Amino acid sequence: MDQRDDVAVAVDEGEQTPAIAVAGVILAMALVAVGNGLMFGYIPISLGAAGYAPTWAGSILTGLSAGGLAGCLLTGMLVRRVGHARAYMVFSALIVLSNVAIGAGTYPVIWIAARVLYGFAICGLFIVAQSWLNDAVGNDIRGRVMAIFYVAYVVGLGVGSFLLRFVDISGADAALLGIAFNAISILPVGLTRLRQPPAPQAASVALARAWRISPVGVAGMLAVGGVSMLVTGFAPIHATASGFSQQEVATLLFAMPLGTLLFQIPFGWISDRTDRRHVLVAAGLLVVIGGLAASRFDGSALPIMVAIYVVWSGASESIYSLSSAHASDRAHKDDLVALSSSMLFAWSLSGFIVPGLGTVLTAIYGTQAFMHVAVVIAALFTAFVLWRLRISRAVPAGEAGSFSPMSAQLPPSVDP
């Protein structure tokens, strides 16, 4: 073997991605999720304990969504300017600052600003992490790596919710724990050997083009962005207003991510073997049934409510991953970046508008209003998918891709 062959081998070896480096990014985001799961429950519980109306918690959730929308639109520009690693550090620092503001005392107006900052930062973290992982791994294992990434995040949310059972909400313990987990999450990224991806190209939002490629995919993102924020965001608000104890709310929030793990795998397996739209109809109907059951049995014993919310949350999350897979099935390779950026915008926009509507209706009709909004959105989406089944053909089996579990709490990846 001559010198040129030696160089070629060295380059090939240098391009191999160390498994521990990939695991570091996944671990970092799982640690972030623990802090996030803790704070999602802590905010409405502490506001309720301090005597504030539930509309304050709804306004804080809407602020979070507004920050997320800004993050989805501006993250690419920041990454192009400073790179993935530095952008990750910036977003982590912003989350720490957000938790510091919350730990300073129960001041709802300040908390709204803090959660706007958090929404901006967490959306940026997700985009950076997904982009980094997509670049680091090959096509042969990308699906498995991203599945592990999503599952690790969902498990982290559940762990954070469980920790809420042991936190004294009268002090700043929850905020300090959130700060600690986010600070620790920086270490795996700061020590990573993962190579820096190239600067991302600016991807324009073209909703009309995305709609032509996959009406069901775009409609799914518009539906699930709002429904997911309603179910996961207003569940602790309503439970607190209904008189559930801190431990009961923590149990409910701990159980809800299990629905994501329980439903997505079988739904994905079935969707890989049939028209995904049939599975989307099933998921949409389950969301409708879950919302009606949550309203009908509202105030029942905790085990009943946990079972209902596990189904409701799991079915909602499944719409996200199924819609993403369906849209990818119908897109050409050259369309993937534009399609992903447009679906990201649709998801973000819905995640901002619908919680705002839920907050307004909460002020008028009470905290149970979010259930009815979620049911209406899911019913309209299901009817739309049924209509599309009648007028358009399925993607041929040989042209469809494979399903990967995803969480509606994470922005869609903008990478092909």
Automatic annotation (TrEMBL):
<keyword id="KW-0472">Membrane</keyword>
<dbReference type="InterPro" id="IPR020846">
    <property type="entry name" value="MFS_dom"/>
</dbReference>
<dbReference type="InterPro" id="IPR036259">
    <property type="entry name" value="MFS_trans_sf"/>
</dbReference>
<dbReference type="Pfam" id="PF07690">
    <property type="entry name" value="MFS_1"/>
</dbReference>
<feature type="transmembrane region" description="Helical">
    <location>
        <begin position="370"/>
        <end position="387"/>
    </location>
</feature>
<dbReference type="InterPro" id="IPR011701">
    <property type="entry name" value="MFS"/>
</dbReference>
<dbReference type="InterPro" id="IPR047200">
    <property type="entry name" value="MFS_YcaD-like"/>
</dbReference>
<feature type="transmembrane region" description="Helical">
    <location>
        <begin position="344"/>
        <end position="364"/>
    </location>
</feature>
<feature type="transmembrane region" description="Helical">
    <location>
        <begin position="249"/>
        <end position="267"/>
    </location>
</feature>
<feature type="transmembrane region" description="Helical">
    <location>
        <begin position="116"/>
        <end position="133"/>
    </location>
</feature>
<feature type="transmembrane region" description="Helical">
    <location>
        <begin position="279"/>
        <end position="297"/>
    </location>
</feature>
<feature type="transmembrane region" description="Helical">
    <location>
        <begin position="303"/>
        <end position="323"/>
    </location>
</feature>
<feature type="transmembrane region" description="Helical">
    <location>
        <begin position="215"/>
        <end position="237"/>
    </location>
</feature>
<keyword id="KW-0812">Transmembrane</keyword>
<keyword id="KW-1133">Transmembrane helix</keyword>
<feature type="transmembrane region" description="Helical">
    <location>
        <begin position="145"/>
        <end position="164"/>
    </location>
</feature>
<feature type="transmembrane region" description="Helical">
    <location>
        <begin position="176"/>
        <end position="194"/>
    </location>
</feature>
<keyword id="KW-0813">Transport</keyword>
<feature type="transmembrane region" description="Helical">
    <location>
        <begin position="20"/>
        <end position="43"/>
    </location>
</feature>
<feature type="transmembrane region" description="Helical">
    <location>
        <begin position="55"/>
        <end position="76"/>
    </location>
</feature>
<protein>
    <submittedName>
        <fullName>MFS family permease</fullName>
    </submittedName>
</protein>
<feature type="domain" description="Major facilitator superfamily (MFS) profile">
    <location>
        <begin position="16"/>
        <end position="390"/>
    </location>
</feature>
<keyword id="KW-1003">Cell membrane</keyword>
<feature type="transmembrane region" description="Helical">
    <location>
        <begin position="88"/>
        <end position="110"/>
    </location>
</feature>
